[in-house]
Each structure stands twice: as structure tokens, then as C-alpha cells.
């Protein structure tokens, strides 16, 4: 019965590839269901780059968020290929949900899944922007410190130090008539002490910068988690309102009968 009623409210629209269906900030006047083709939902980030949030195929619906909360569109929708869409106007959408609370629950469930996916996407996007921003701020000295710290904490450095020591000892013990650093190799000890003295502050500089990045990343993760909590709270509030409406409708039918 609900499916028949919904089909009577829908109108069909054929769109060509690349046709924009709506843009972010526009008022929402209808919801779309994809019968054939594919529609790309995207947003522009702070850098002006297009970020794809989802691709809607046959059987998927989109554009319902602005009809539920009355706010403007939150993303752009563009036909990725030649598509056929079913369009449901705002007024028909609201009246249909009032009569079919189970359909409303299904829409809110799908909306919750999309919000979770968007939060995951934003989390990775925020991390990537942080790394790009930090890389852009690095000076030549910072890059040199990172390279030296990476080399100083590797097996390559240990192997190079051992090979250099053996070469130094062999050179001053067997291959030179007048060695410049005789046993107990005081000059060699001085070289290694100098390397160790310089290596420690270089590694500390690299670790301090990494600690700064970790603090920023932790703050961004907190903001994303807070946004996720607020969005889920809003979804739960709407689910409770629909459940209360459905319960009241059921009580009315029990009291007066379905045909009264």
C-alpha cells in the first residue's frame, strides 16, 4: 500500500551526464530516487578541492536531509552518467512520512549510516590536510633534522659506525707508517663523542615537532568525535519523535478502529 502511494507521488526526470541537480546552499524542494544511472554527491573542502562523499546508484535516494531539517542543501549533486530519477516534492515527502512512520525510520537509518561514513571521510581528510600543512611549513633545517634523525635511528647508521671504526683502527694500526691516531685511538673517541653530542639535540628537535603534530591531531580527532556525538544525538531525538508519533497513531486506531 505504501509503495503504491509513493509511486503515485513520484515524477520521472531524465538527466544527461554532467547535469547538476542541486548545489550546496540552495533551498531543498525535493528528494530524488535513482532509477537508472549514477549520481555523485560531493562537497568542496577548505582548500577548494572537490571531495566525493558518495555515488548513488539504482535504488538509492538522496536530497532528503534538507527536507527533514528545512536547511539549505549541504552538498552538490551531479549526474555522473545519463540517469533517470524519480522526484518527490517537499510537501508530498512530509505528508508521506506522517502516514508511514516505518518508512521514516528507514530513511533515518540510512541517514545515520551516511553521517558515519562522512565522519570517517572527514577524519582522514583532516589528517591529510594536517600533514600537508606541516610539510609546507618545514624549513631546510627542519628537513635536514628529520633526515639525520631518521638515519641516526636506523641499522644503516650502526653499520656505518662499525665500518668506520674498523677502517680507522686498521688504518692507524697496520697501513700507516706514522699513524695519526695511535692506540687507544683518542681522536676516534673524540669524533664519536662529537657525533653523539650533535645527534641528541637533532633527534630532540625532530621529536618535539612530531609531538606538536600529535597534539594538533588529537585536538582535531576530538572535534570530529564531538561532531559525531552531536549528530547522533540529533538522529536519536528524531527517532524518538517518530516513535512517539507512531505510538500515538496506533493508540488512536485501537481506540476508534481503523475504519472510523
Kindly describe this structure.
- With 260 residues, the chain is an alpha+beta fold.
- The protein has two domains: 1-95, Jelly Rolls (Sandwich); 100-260, no CATH class.
- Helices cover 63% and strands 16% of the residues.
- The protein is built from seven helices and eight strands.
- The chain has helices at 2-9, 65-69, 90-99, 101-137, 140-152, 155-175, 186-256, and strands at 11-15, 20-22, 30-36, 39-44, 50-56, 61-62, 76-79, 83-89.
- The strands form two sheets. It has a four-stranded antiparallel beta sheet.
- A hairpin with a 5-residue loop joins strand 4 and strand 5.
- The chain is elongated.
- The two termini are 19 Å apart.
- The mean pLDDT is 78.
Question: Secondary-structure map with pairings?
Answer:
Layout: H1 2-9, E1 11-15, E2 20-22, E3 30-36, E4 39-44, E5 50-56, E6 61-62, H2 65-69, E7 76-79, E8 83-89, H3 90-99, H4 101-137, H5 140-152, H6 155-175, H7 186-256
Antiparallel strand pairs: 1-8, 2-7, 3-6, 3-8, 4-5, 4-7
Helix pairs in contact: 4-7, 5-7
Amino acid at each position: 500500500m505504501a509503495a503504491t502511494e509513493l509511486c503515485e507521488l513520484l515524477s520521472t526526470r531524465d538527466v544527461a551526464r554532467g547535469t547538476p541537480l542541486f548545489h550546496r546552499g540552495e533551498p531543498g524542494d525535493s528528494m530524488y530516487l535513482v532509477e537508472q544511472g549514477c549520481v555523485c554527491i560531493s562537497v568542496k573542502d577548505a582548500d577548494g578541492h572537490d571531495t566525493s562523499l558518495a555515488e548513488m546508484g539504482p535504488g538509492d535516494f538522496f536530497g532528503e536531509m534538507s527536507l527533514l531539517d528545512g536547511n539549505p542543501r549541504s552538498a552538490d549533486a551531479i549526474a555522473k552518467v545519463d540517469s533517470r530519477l524519480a522526484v518527490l516534492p517537499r510537501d508530498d515527502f512530509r505528508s508521506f512520512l506522517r502516514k508511514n512512520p516505518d518508512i521514516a525510520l528507514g530513511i533515518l537509518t540510512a541517514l545515520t549510516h551516511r553521517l558515519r561514513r562522512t565522519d570517517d571521510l572527514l577524519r582522514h581528510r583532516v589528517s591529510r590536510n594536517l600533514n600537508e600543512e606541516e610539510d609546507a611549513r618545514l624549513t631546510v633545517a627542519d628537513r635536514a633534522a628529520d633526515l639525520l634523525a631518521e638515519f641516526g635511528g636506523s641499522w644503516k647508521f650502526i653499520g656505518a659506525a662499525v665500518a668506520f671504526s674498523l677502517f680507522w683502527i686498521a688504518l692507524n694500526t697496520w697501513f700507516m707508517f706514522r699513524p695519526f691516531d695511535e692506540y687507544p685511538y683518542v681522536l676516534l673517541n673524540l669524533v664519536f663523542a662529537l657525533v653523539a653530542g650533535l645527534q641528541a639535540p637533532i633527534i630532540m628537535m625532530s621529536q618535539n615537532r612530531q609531538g606538536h603534530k600529535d597534539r594538533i591531531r588529537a585536538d582535531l580527532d576530538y572535534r570530529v568525535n564531538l561532531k559525531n556525538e552531536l549528530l547522533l544525538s540529533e538522529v536519536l531525538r528524531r527517532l524518538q519523535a517518530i516513535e512517539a508519533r507512531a505510538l500515538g497513531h496506533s493508540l488512536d486506531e485501537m481506540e476508534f478502529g481503523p475504519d472510523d
